[in-house]
Amino acid sequence: MIEFKNVSKKYDGAPVHALKDINLTIDKGEFVFVVGSSGAGKSTFLKLMMREEVPSTGSIVVDDIDLTKIKKRDIPKFRRRLGIVFQDFRLIPNMTVFDNVAFAMRVIGTKEKKIRRRVPYVLSLMGLNEKARNYPKELSGGEQQRVALARALANNAEIIIADEPTGNVDPQMSYEIVDLLMRLNEAGTTVIMVTHEHSLVRCFDKRVIILDKGSVVSDGGALIREAATSHINPASEISNEYIVPPEEDYSAYAEYEQELQQEAETVEVAVNVEDDIIMSEGGVN
Ligand SMILES: Nc1ncnc2c1ncn2[C@@H]1O[C@H](COP(=O)(O)OP(=O)(O)O)[C@@H](O)[C@H]1O
Ligand SMILES: [Mg+2]
User: Fold this and answer.
1) Minimal-distance CA residue to ligand 1 atom 4
2) From the CB of 41, is ligand 1 less than 6 Å away?
3) Are 192 and 168 in contact (CB under 8 A)?
4) Which fold, 31-51+158-280?
5) Which of 26, 67, 151, 272 is the least crowded, having the fewest Cβ atoms under 10 Å away?
6) Max CA-CA distance within the chain?
């Protein structure tokens, strides 16, 4: 469980607060979208959660650890519980896909024998088996982000923290990345994902925290909230954008979902046809 209590953050020298009086709880196993316009405080929210920044006031507790009281030497151990994914992937360019993932395990002293078992497994979860020997620059943006996800998974993270992971990939790949995150979430991982793509948020009915100028202006299930707020004036134009996203944006994902469905059906048909052939061949012999 992650608990923010009266958390405010003002960076040194900054004229205004990056976050103002945040009070919320994220339960173990939740999937949470955090949305808001640029400068709303989204990255600060995540940085506080991973103890990359400390709040100016208030407290943040992750499970049994009070992040405002944690000793410096205990921070690396705490971070091992997190899988962190960034918009710009942050892969190491002169390492292969395999080694990029393995590196995350090597830095915490994992035995090579375990690395050789675990890396192919997480790569296969991300559909990247074929790319193990490639270098990041040989991959598409979406593939690079999947490597970053595999790396985040390598050490069995309990919490995945993703800061605009779909910011540099096309809409189809965005959908796939969120879909992968959803599946990890179904397997028990807590996922906190920052995005400004309202169409993505709309696609998946999950909790959405909307930040605006450092404050939480809305917090709840996307569809439920949309129904509840459709008849009233939105708190601000910014948050409204997330509540009722433009239809054309959404349709791109809907179409893609349909495509995936058709693809799955085609594969099924192909398998059935193959079965028939095998059976009839068997009959001839
Ligand atoms: N290291 C920093 N020093 C000073 N101000 C910062 C720093 N990081 C972020 N800010 C300011 O804090 C506010 C929130 O930033 P950020 O959390 O990065 O927002 P978002 O991720 O939603 O775009 C912005 O006004 C930003 O300029
Ligand atoms: Mg940001």
Assistant:
1) 11
2) yes
3) no
4) Rossmann fold (3.40.50)
5) 272
6) 83
